[in-house]
Amino acid sequence: MTWLNAKDRHILRYSQLYTKQGLDVLVVKSELKDFLWPPNSMTFAEQLYEVLENQTNSYDHFFCHTMSLGSYNWNTLRMFLKQKGSPENVSGKFRGQIFDSVTAGAGKGGVLEESPVEGQTQVHALDRMVKGMISAKKRSPMMKLAIKSFSKAYFAATKSKTVRVYEESLKFFREEPLKAPTLFFASRDDPMCDAAVLEKLVEIWKKEHGFPVSIKVWEESAHAQHYIYHTEEYERLHGELLKTIFSTIHQC
Question: What is the number of domains present in the chain?
Answer without folding.
Answer: 1
